[in-house]
């Protein structure tokens, strides 16, 4: 079993990134410790499909490596790398562009969402983004890809591309590509803003009080939880009582995600109590969970040499695994290589 998953490098990582995505990567790594392999990559090639500031992208890539390692990704047990150091990603994308069809790409909802009304002004990279995603997974003979609802369409396209390529250029008993299967990771916590329970926690929120950053110290976390928006009602004893109370629902969900409890279990303990009692308990739990990550994250950020080494080692391992598939694709297409 080989699992491949990627994440775009973004700066200012927060609690939502950790509980929403990174923690599931750690779980998959641990579950496959004896029976498979995980490849996790930073999608820096994908990042340039949208306007970006080069220095910020470089910094965010290093921050993401530090965050992943701090959160529990082990570069010795998983292959951790960035796309830009593995040219086979871009090479295979070009080879697959001959197989992917315009009609398939025109149906991709992500392009429609990101290009919005300025379709003519969108980059070609944004339009062919799904083909690079297909290359990302097909390159490694990936057996399984963790997908949420928003990524199912992209995996389906990758399977379509792989199937058509195999049909057109390979024999039935010797396909070039493995068709990856989707796996649904454990339900990720959907972490919302501390200032508006109807909006996701985001690095782009103008208020730093709206999020818990992975760089926040204990005093800052306590302060942010104390000032988090709530309502005047006490906590209910059952989850149904949180309906129409988005801020209360968010804080209870965060507590449950950090403690490993269901919402009902959290409410069984705190139901009937006001936020004056619940918030200190949440802050204490959060500091306990985040403090080791924060300390490791900050330590890694100060050691640029160590971060570069992690990426270099991971890229070397990824290039080794990618080479046979890339060569097979070149041969299948009749391309002459020295």
UniProtKB/TrEMBL annotation:
L-tryptophan binds at residue 136. Its main location: cytoplasm. It is found in: Cytoplasm. It catalyses: tRNA(Trp) + L-tryptophan + ATP = L-tryptophyl-tRNA(Trp) + AMP + diphosphate + H(+). CDD domains: TrpRS_core. The gene is trpS. ATP binds at residues 8-10, 16-17, 148-150, 191, 200-204. Pfam families: tRNA-synt_1b. The lineage of its organism: Bacteria, Pseudomonadati, Pseudomonadota, Alphaproteobacteria, Sphingomonadales. SUPFAM superfamilies: Nucleotidylyl transferase. It comes from Pelagerythrobacter marinus. Its EC number is 6.1.1.2. A motif ('KMSKS' region) lies at residues 200-204. Catalyzes the attachment of tryptophan to tRNA(Trp). A motif ('HIGH' region) lies at residues 9-17. Keywords: Aminoacyl-tRNA synthetase, ATP-binding, Cytoplasm, Ligase, Nucleotide-binding, Protein biosynthesis. This is Tryptophan--tRNA ligase. Homodimer. GO terms for molecular function: tryptophan-tRNA ligase activity. InterPro entries: aa-tRNA-synth_I_CS, aa-tRNA-synth_Ic, Rossmann-like_a/b/a_fold, Trp-tRNA-ligase, Trp-tRNA-ligase_bac-type, Trp-tRNA_synthetase. Belongs to the class-I aminoacyl-tRNA synthetase family.
């Amino acid at each position: 079993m080989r699992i491949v998953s990627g994440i775009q490098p973004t700066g200012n990582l927060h609690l939502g990134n950790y509980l929403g995505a990174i923690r599931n990567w750690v779980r998959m790594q641990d579950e496959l410790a004896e029976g498979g392999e995980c490849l996790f990559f930073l999608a820096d090639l994908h990042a340039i499909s949208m306007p970006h500031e080069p220095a910020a992208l470089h910094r965010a890539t290093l921050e993401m490596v530090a965050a992943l390692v701090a959160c529990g990704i082990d570069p010795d047990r998983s292959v951790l790398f960035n796309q830009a150091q593995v040219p086979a990603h871009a090479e295979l994308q070009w080879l697959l562009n001959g197989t992917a069809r315009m009609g398939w790409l025109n149906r991709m909802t992500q392009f429609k969402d990101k290009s919005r009304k300025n379709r003519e002004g969108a980059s070609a990279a944004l339009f062919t983004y799904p083909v690079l995603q297909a290359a990302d997974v097909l390159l490694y003979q990936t057996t399984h890809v963790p997908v949420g609802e928003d990524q199912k369409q992209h995996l389906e396209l990758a399977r379509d591309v792989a199937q058509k390529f195999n049909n057109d250029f390979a024999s039935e008993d010797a396909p070039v590509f493995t068709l990856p299967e989707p796996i649904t990771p454990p339900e990720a916590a959907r972490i919302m803003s501390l200032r508006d329970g109807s909006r996701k926690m985001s690095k782009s929120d103008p208020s730093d009080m709206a999020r818990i950053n992975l760089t926040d110290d204990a005093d800052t976390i306590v302060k942010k939880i104390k000032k988090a928006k709530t309502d005047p009602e006490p906590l209910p004893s059952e989850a149904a009582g949180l309906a129409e109370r988005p801020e209360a629902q968010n804080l209870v969900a965060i507590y449950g995600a950090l403690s490993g409890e269901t919402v009902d279990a959290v409410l069984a303990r705190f139901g009937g109590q006001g936020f004056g009692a619940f918030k200190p308990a949440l802050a204490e739990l959060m500091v306990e969970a985040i403090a080791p990550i924060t300390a490791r994250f900050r330590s890694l950020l100060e050691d640029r040499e160590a971060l570069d080494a992690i990426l270099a080692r991971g890229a070397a391992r990824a290039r080794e695994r990618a080479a046979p598939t890339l060569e097979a694709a070149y041969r299948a297409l009749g391309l002459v290589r020295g």
